[in-house]
Amino acid sequence: xxxxxxxxxxxVVAVLAAAGWLGAGAASAARRRPVxxxxxxxxxLATVARAITIxxxxxxxxxxAAEKVLVAAPLSLAALVVSGAGLLRARRDLRSVAVPLLFAxxxxxxxxxxxxxxxYPASAGVGLLAVSGVVAATAVSWRLLGPRxxxxxxxxxxxxxxxxxxxGVGLAVAPAAAPAGQxxxxxxxxxxxxxxxRRFTLTAxxxxxxxxxxxxxxxxxxxxxxxxxxxxAVGDVIEVTLRNRDIGRGVTLHWHGxxxxxxxxxxxxxxxxxxxxxxxxxYRFRADQAGTYWYHTHAVSDVGVRMGLYGVLVVRPAPxxxxxxTVPVHTLAGVPLPVPRVEPVPPGVPxxxxxxxxxxxxxxxxxxxxxxxxxxxxxxxxxGPTPLVETAVLIPAxxxxxxxxxxPAGPVGLFVDGRVVYxxxxxxxxxxxxxxxxxxxxxxxAPVPWSRFDRRFTLxxxxxxDLHGLLPRYAHTVNGAADPDIxxxxxxxxxxxxxxxxxxxxxxxPWHLHGHHVLVLSRNGRPAxxxxxxxxxxxxxxxxxxxxxxxxxxxxxxxxxxxNLPHADAGMMLHLTYSSI
Length: 581
Ligand code: C2O
Ligand code: CU
Known about the structure:
Elements: H1 3-29, H2 33-60, H3 62-89, H4 98-118, H5 124-145, H6 151-173, E1 197-211, E2 214-221, E3 230-233, E4 237-244, E5 254-256, E6 280-286, E7 291-296, H7 301-307, E8 310-316, E9 323-329, E10 331-332, E11 335-336, E12 350-357, E13 363-368, E14 373-377, E15 380-381, E16 392-395, E17 400-406, E18 413-416, E19 419-423, E20 455-466, E21 473-478, E22 489-492, E23 496-503, E24 509-513, E25 518-523, E26 526-527, E27 534-535, E28 537-540, E29 545-551, E30 557-562, H8 565-569, E31 573-579
Parallel strand pairs: 1-4, 3-8, 9-12, 20-23, 22-31
Antiparallel strand pairs: 1-2, 4-6, 5-7, 7-8, 10-11, 12-17, 13-16, 13-18, 14-15, 14-17, 18-19, 20-21, 23-29, 24-28, 24-30, 25-26, 25-27, 25-29, 30-31
Helix pairs in contact: 1-2, 1-4, 2-3, 3-4, 4-5, 5-6
């Protein structure tokens, strides 16, 4: 079983165990002997099953099991001892075991809440809060159902609950590591005048655009979705004047995957203020990376990008030969936008399809009717890509794949999530069963360019209750905290930095670091064996553990976040910052 499925299975058995014990307690209080016995047996089984899932998760990695081993396992054990002893002692009248059975239910529920609301890392404060909750709920049940406890016993119970509660609250709300402190800005000199400059103007504004015969409200650059395609040749200077006509919440331009100097990165509140209606901002950077990229607003980006404030950026090493087209895939108002038409070309002409996923979730692409190679991922050329046939590729949110082939004599078709988005004639439509390319073992391997790492960071992705804002929210968290309370990762210029990214949640997180490309070292313990993969967007699936590394060679303060943009908005965003010493 994959770690992702184990995480889901563990949650299910935890719910069953809690429900089983609570139900057994309620049934015995109501003197429903057979029901109580049946539910108690069921709960017992679920609790044993949970021991198995917790053990398996601990073997997959401590991140997946920490709070389960430290909180759920002791509470489950206590539940088994107390309720088991009660059941063994009880003869005919099960009412006397109602309280022990309910205790077991409270213990399992509290442990479940710790996993669902708090997660990783486990903390003593949260453990004590769980214990105080269990003790308090049991004490109330005891008063209502049980024999009258002696004064000493009730005092002891109240004292225990109070101590656990006070200590738990104290530890849980104690300030963690200092949140993102001073932003240190160090700017690279802007390119000088006199170099060939490609100038563009992008005006952001509300617009109405037609999608499949329907008029929908959008936010657009120059009135179109996607915005104009920006192209340049390697060595050009790109200069883009951004104007905001009427987007009240402000706009910026972020060059997704383009490792620009920090002050050109377009992150409001970090590298520049958002550009408000009537204002403008000029971006300027040298096009020194060839490849397929895209740009999008980074102001309220979960809304702005979805509404249409994005476009493609392509930098070519030399004038394109053959057919070279970009295929940005985007869903606007719930409808997939049509992709640009490509006229059929004579057989033998080289074709390059630059696939861009501008949505917040993964898309599955399948090219039918021709063998092809994946020439580049996230703008970087792959080493020794081999021809593929009847193979699908999964592109993470924000990711790009360049597919190349020679135009065949017969028709070709491109499918996205099983739907044909483009074809030059009838093609076999059954792409759903095709195997999916694993880029970690595609192409020719090369040694990792570093032998040591100056810094290591671990990011554990999860969900949890965030009580730090004005209103409590169920956030997407990194190491148990949500933006803006996630401590920044501090590196020094010249460091080689290694990241471990662990997903212990039940959803995919497409990870995206600004300003740097990371080299994939391994996934789930298996080293990457194919072409070196320099990525800026990669899907960390439930249960995945990715090891990636990069050179700290671009000083500044850089966003490091999940590119499922609603997740980033719900807390899954931190910063990488360079210290000046
Ligand atoms: Cu494509 Cu921080 O974003
Ligand atoms: Cu996410």
